[in-house]
Amino acid sequence: MPGGVSSPVRAFSPHPVYLTRGQGAYVWDADGHRYVDLCLAYGPLILGHAHPEVLDAVQERIRRGWIFGAPVEEEIRLARQVSRHHPSAEMVRFVSTGSEAVVSLLRLARAYTGRPSVVKMDGGYHGSVDALMVHPSRGTGVRPSSPGAAPPRGARTYVVPFNDADRLEGILEAHDDIGLVLLEPVLGNIGTILPEPGYLRRVRQVCSRYGVLLAFDEVITSYRLGIGGAERRFGVRPDLLVLGKVIGGGFPLAAYAGRRDILSLVSPQGPVYQAGTFSGHPASLTAGLATLRVLEREGLGGAEKQTHELARGLAEEARRRNIPLQVPHIGTLLSLFIASDPVRDAAAARRSDLGAVRALLRSCLQQGVYVPQSPQETLFLSLVHTDADITRVRECVATALGQQGKQRS
Ligand code: PMP
């Protein structure tokens, strides 16, 4: 296995921690050490590990068989729920991963607009393999096997800074090949970076003015900012939506969704080909339904308040030691930046003291808090973390900050 792992973020030096068990807010490693988990599989486990309602539902489902290659009732129920929660999701297509959803959405947007190029934000993370969707053809060698698929000749990906609607407008004004603006409404893959007030609304206005589709990649934010994700929280309606992580309750499931006139182009209703053997896997749909049932009943529970308290506590610990720690947070997401200027875009995140945050995360791991080891990942809370867990995390970070304070002085 390249790097010894199945996904690069799991590798760290000298070797990753191998986890054997998870229950509630805790994981155990192969040596039997227990950790408070603030990684939660990079986001999906908003109810923590092995939540009894999810476990019961999945066990009951798979006893009757786990995959059929035929429609199942659960996908109708989950599609209805997603549509009810997300105003922009007039139609929904389930796939297995966020990357697959993004690839499919790009193809769809190209087919709908007839324009090949896309704008993304600096620091945004999505993914693509469109260049492989080709048929042999006599003249040019290959031709796309579906409208909107590659090779969109001359297709470009323009990158603009987050929180800068003027730059976005400038790009849309200057180029008429752009069909789609794709963004995480809260950046979550370069730390957590919040949209400034009015930014998303201006993005919406600018996209509408230039006739460009707007897609929110809510793989991280949906349900973690509450039901309805960022689009409800900020009151901005995109044309298209990418969902993942929480909607599968910790099993592989993602979706792309959006306006009926656009989604109607997807096969078999329309000509834009997209398919998957594992799409809408019954176990994943069931885990997702059970997870959303709990969230409908309990909202984010105390998790949002805990996230806020933790962020406030960590900032206080840092202030006491004269360390310029910023803890941006929203919903059940938070991250750490050590920087003097406010981190409002990816460039500022890159200028921040990544080495110091990396050392802090490493210290947390050694003290029994399981956190991603990259300083650019978001940390996740759940509905099952207790106040005592949060206090413990605060104490561990305080110890780590103390170690840094000593090194600085
Ligand atoms: N979009 C965003 C915003 C993500 O955070 C991720 C994964 N972290 C993806 C897309 C890709 O999802 P997956 O890993 O399920 O392919």
Description:
With 409 residues, the chain is of the alpha/beta class. The chain folds into two domains: 2-50 and 300-408, Aspartate Aminotransferase, domain 1, CATH 3.90.1150.10; 66-297, 3-Layer(aba) Sandwich (Aspartate Aminotransferase, domain 2), CATH 3.40.640. The chain is built from twelve helices and 18 strands. Strands 4-12-11-10-9-5-8 form a seven-stranded mixed beta sheet, sandwiched between helices. A four-stranded mixed beta sheet has the order 1-2-3-17. Helix 11 packs across helix 12 (387-408). The relative contact order is 0.16. The mean pLDDT is 93. The structure holds 4'-deoxy-4'-aminopyridoxal-5'-phosphate. Residues 42, 97-99, 102, 125-127, 184, 188-189, 217, 219-220, 244, 254 line the site of 4'-deoxy-4'-aminopyridoxal-5'-phosphate (PMP).
Short description:
The protein is of the alpha/beta class and 409 residues long.
Task: Note the main attributes of this structure.
Aspartate Aminotransferase, domain 1; 7-stranded mixed β-sheet; Aspartate Aminotransferase, domain 2; alpha/beta; single chain; 12 helices; 2 domains; binds 4'-deoxy-4'-aminopyridoxal-5'-phosphate; 4-stranded mixed β-sheet
Through-space gap between termini: 42 Å
Overall structural domain count: 2
Number of strands: 18
Contiguous uncertain segments of 5+ residues: none
Order of helices and strands: EEEHHEHEEEEHEHEHEEHHHEEEEHHEEH
Tally the helices: what do you get?
A: 12
| Biggest beta-sheet profile | 7 strands, mixed
Average pLDDT confidence is 93
CATH topology of the largest domain: Aspartate Aminotransferase, domain 2
Q: Provide the spatial order of strands within the biggest beta sheet.
A: 4-12-11-10-9-5-8
The unique ligands bound to this protein are:
4'-deoxy-4'-aminopyridoxal-5'-phosphate
CA radius of gyration: 22 Å
CATH class membership of the largest domain: Alpha Beta
Structural class: alpha/beta
What proportion strand?
15-25%
CATH architectural arrangement of the largest domain: 3-Layer(aba) Sandwich
Helical percentage: 25-40%
The H-level CATH homologous superfamily of the largest domain, spelled out, is Type I PLP-dependent aspartate aminotransferase-like (Major domain)
Shape: globular
